[in-house]
Structure formats: C-alpha cells, structure tokens
Amino acid sequence: MLVKTYRNSMDEKASIRAGLRILSVCAHLGIPVKKVGSQWFMKCPVHGSDGKMQSCHFMEHAPAARDGADLWQCEKCGASGDVFTLLMMALQLNFPQAVEKAKEILGMKSERTILSVVKTPEVRQAPKLATVAMRDKVYKALLSLFSLGDQQKENLLRRGFTEEEIASFGYSQMCYQDGIALTKQIAKVTGISSFTGIPGFYQTKNGQWACKTHNALLIPVRNVNGKIYGLRLRISAVNGERVYAWYTSLRDKNGSALSGGSSPGALLHTVRFLHSDTLWITEGEIKADRSSLALKQNFVSVPGVGNWRLIPDLAEHIKAKHVVIAYDQDSGKTAQVVAKHCKNLANALYQKGLSVHTAIWRKENGKGIDDVLNAYGSSAISLKPIE
Predict the structure, then answer these.
(1) Which residues form the DUF3854 domain (predicted)?
(2) How is the beta sheet containing 71-74 ordered, strand by strand?
(3) C-alpha count within 13 angstroms, C-beta hemisphere, residue 286
(4) Which residues does 361 contact at the CB level (< 8 Å), separation at least 6?
(5) How far is residue 59's CA from residue 51's CA, in Å, rounded to a whole number?
C-alpha cells in the first residue's frame, strides 16, 4: 500500500475516512457481516446482534458522503457514522485513538487479504444487567464525581436551560482518570462491592473493579419513573462533530471481552409531567429534556427512529391519550426512512386507541424541535394528523 505525505492531520483523516472500507474494519475486529441481496449488514457495535443481524446496515461509497466514504446505521439503537465512529463505539476509543487504529488497519496488509479472513470473535456471555435501583445509585455517585466545565455549561445555557435546570438533569463532564480509583470512591459512597451488570464497569485481570473513562459529556438516561438506568456519552471529535455513544464496558480498546462488562442495550429516555396526558416523541436525550421544560409535557427520546416498539406500551403505562411525533426536519432519503417509521409507530399507537399527530415547523426555523422552541416558542409548531 502506498504511503502518502499529507499537508496536515486533517488531510490524513479525510484520506483515511474515504479510503478505509467498513468491510476491512469488520474483518480486522472480527465483527460478523453478511450480505442480503445488494445490502450489507453487520453486528451492531453498540448492542450486538438482533438474531437475524438485519438492523445494522452499511453502504460502501455512500451517496450521502461527499468524499465517497462508507457509512453505517443501526435502525434498532440509532447508532450511526463512518469508519471512525465504528471504531470508537466497537472498541470504546476516543477520536485520536480511532484514527490511529484506522491507520494500523490500513497499514497491516492489503484489503484483499484482510477481507479473505472474516472470523467471528470468541463470544463471552455478558452478565445480566443489574437492577434499575442499583444502576441509579451507582450512576448518581459517578456523576457526582465530575462537574460541568464552563464551555459545556455555556452550551447548555445557549440551548435554553437555566443553571438550576442543568443541575436538576444531572449532566456532568467526564475526563480520563484512573478507573480503579474512581470505582473505589463509588464503592465507598454507595456501599456496593460488586458492579456486575452495570454498563461501564468491569473487572481487571487481577480482579479489581474499574470503570471506563472518557473525555465526554455524561447524559443521564432515565426510565419512566425517573431513575437513571443508563448513560449516554457525547464526545466531541477533533473535526468538530459530536459523536453519541452508550456508556458500556463490553470490550477493551483491542476488541477483547472484558470480565464483568456489560452493555445497556438501546434505552428510552423519559421526562414526566404528571398533569399531562400528551406524550411527545423525539430523538436525543438533551433535546427531550429541553423540550419538555418548554412545553410542560411528557417527552420520550428514542435511540434511533427505528427503535419505536416500546413506545406504545410506555404511552399506555403513563395513561397518555395523545401522542405527538417530533423528529428532526430532515430531507431526502433520511426523511423517507423517518416517514416509514413514523407510519409504523402511528399504526401501533392507533391500536391502543390513541390520537397521533406529527409536529411540523418551517425548516428555516430550526432542525430540531428544541431549536424551534428556544428561538420562536410553541406558536411556531403546528400538529398534523398521521393518516
């Protein structure tokens, strides 16, 4: 393989992104892939396989990528991205580490040779998830060990939060630290000695409990009762893009299974207003938090528009009578995919006897519902029945 000299690191990253195939990454990491017709599927790097392995698909030289890069997306959990995000999520790497790993894959042997050796890695059964009460206790203790930096707080204030609201939602800024030392602090505060089944925690080779650390914003993910049962990471990549990933501990940076490590799966995030009989649906935990405050309504965030199947039961559980679907105002193929899932969700909700509308607004007023509410208020949003 030819080695090029780049003018700067951005040139190098762009060349890697455009030149490294997702098939090569899967082969190197041992991620199972299969082809159905003309479409490629792989085991999702976030939640694993769905049995048929047909929820996470990828496309070579994707039309949506101007540079000809490969792109992937999981319709079950909503995770998506390019070769860099695949490496980051599969191996729990930060962006610079993912770039180095990509360079290693490109340099180790030709892609033709790599693609000829697709092996399934040894599978270690992940432990059963800890109870919601235990996860809530541990995650609250973890969040309390960090605080928001000035820049992160300013970003949230710009999105319309007050300082009191930011504190109430529990956002925190994690940084790289000694995971063993952090876990010892959490054990001391909570009285918990075993962290089995708590995503983000694992046992080292000498049997000590440790937690994964990242340079990332920690976003609490709450169940219908307000308990924190998972965490999302918002990682700022070098190129300025924001990458979202679940806080998990299934594998180390080399792809090896971690003892005691686990994944939360794809979780719904719910914000309750007990007086409300309307449930709004969007994608993005912070978006749901902010929008719920603006409208004083129940909100649920789905981890990907295709992951809607738990919504009907949730709506029934909170005794909602009306549901409003408020996904981002996308265009092109993305809009077609969103429309398909909205229709399927609406049909499932109609079977529960609920009224269903979609929220619409002028695209120039903002992409997400939180943007529109923050800039123009609820008067800029109208509701349209889904037939």
Answers:
(1) 278-379
(2) 33-36, 39-42, 56-59, 71-74, 80-81
(3) 23
(4) 329, 369, 372, 380, 381, 382
(5) 21
CA angle 146–214–33, rounded 5-degree value: 145
| Predicted TM-score (pTM) above 0.90 | no
- DSSP annotation of 48 reads B
In angstroms, the Cα distances linking 204 to 258, 259, 316 are: 8, 7, 43
The DSSP secondary structure of 327-351, one letter per residue, reads -----HHHHHHHHHHHHHHHHHHHT
Q: How far apart are CA 325 and CA 173, in angstroms?
A: 30
Q: Which two tokens stand for residue 139?
A: 């995650």
Tokens of 103: 């360079």
Q: Does residue 42 contact residue 32 with C-beta atoms inside 8 Å?
A: yes
CATH 3.60.21.10 fits 9-115, yes or no: no
Helix (H, G, I), strand (E, B) or coil at 355: strand
- Contact (CB, 8 A) for 88 and 246: no
Q: Where are the domains of the chain?
A: 9-115, 132-246, 269-385
User: Which CATH entry fits the domain spanning 269-385: 3.30.230.10, 3.40.30.10, 3.30.420.10, 3.40.1360.10?
Assistant: 3.40.1360.10
Tens of pLDDT along the chain (387 residues) come to 333 333 445 567 777 887 788 888 888 888 888 877 667 888 888 766 555 666 787 887 765 565 678 888 876 666 778 888 888 888 877 788 888 888 888 874 333 333 333 344 444 555 689 999 999 999 999 999 999 989 999 999 999 999 999 999 999 999 999 999 999 999 999 999 999 999 999 999 999 999 999 989 999 999 999 999 999 999 876 555 667 888 998 777 766 778 888 888 889 999 999 889 999 999 999 999 999 999 999 999 998 888 888 999 999 999 999 999 999 887 555 677 788 889 999 999 999 999 999 999 999 999 999 999 999 999 999 999 987
SS3 (DSSP) at 83: helix
Q: Give the Cα separation of 130 and 147 in Å (integer).
A: 25
CA distance linking residue 249 with residue 203, whole number of Å = 10
Output the CATH code of domain 132-246. 3.90.980.10
Residue 251 pairs with which residues in a beta bridge? Answer: 257
**Cα–Cα distance for residue pair 323/236, rounded to 1 Å:** 33
